[in-house]
Amino acid sequence: MPGGSHGTFRPAFRRWRAGRPFWGGLLLALGGAEVLLTLKASLDVILHVGMQGLAGYLFPAVMLLCGVLILFNPSQRLFYSVIGVLVSLATWMTSNLGGFFVGMLLGIVGSCLTFGWLPDQEPRVSRRQRRRAAKAAAAARPLEREAGQTA
Question: Is 16 left (phi over 0), alpha (psi -120 to 50) or beta?
Fold first, then answer.
C-alpha cells in the first residue's frame, strides 16, 4: 500500500523498540503466557485446594505482568527482571514444572536479557563492517609510508 501508514509505522516502531529491552520483556511475557496456558486445573478446583493451588496461577501472571511492565516502563527494568527470574524459578515448583520447562526457560532468558540491557550503549558494529574498516586502515598505511618517504 504505497503512501500508507506502513512507511511511517515501521521506523517509529524501531525507534520505540530501540529505547527499551524489547526482546527480554517479550520473552518474559511469553514465558508467563505459556505457563498460564499449560495449567490444567480449573479455577474452581484451584480455589478449593487453597493457596498452594493459587500460586500456580499467581506466579505466571506475575511473569506476564513483569514482561509487559518491562516493555512499557524500561526505567525500572532491573527490579522487574529480578522479580521475573525469581518468579520464573518458582513456577518450577507450582506450575507443571514451569510449563514443562519451556515457560520457565523463556522467563529466565528474558529476565537475564533485560538485566543485561544498557540503555546508553552504542549499537554493535557487525563483523563485516569491522573487517572493511580494518582493510581500509591497512590500505591507508602504505600510502602514509610513501608520503612520509617523499617528504
Answer: alpha
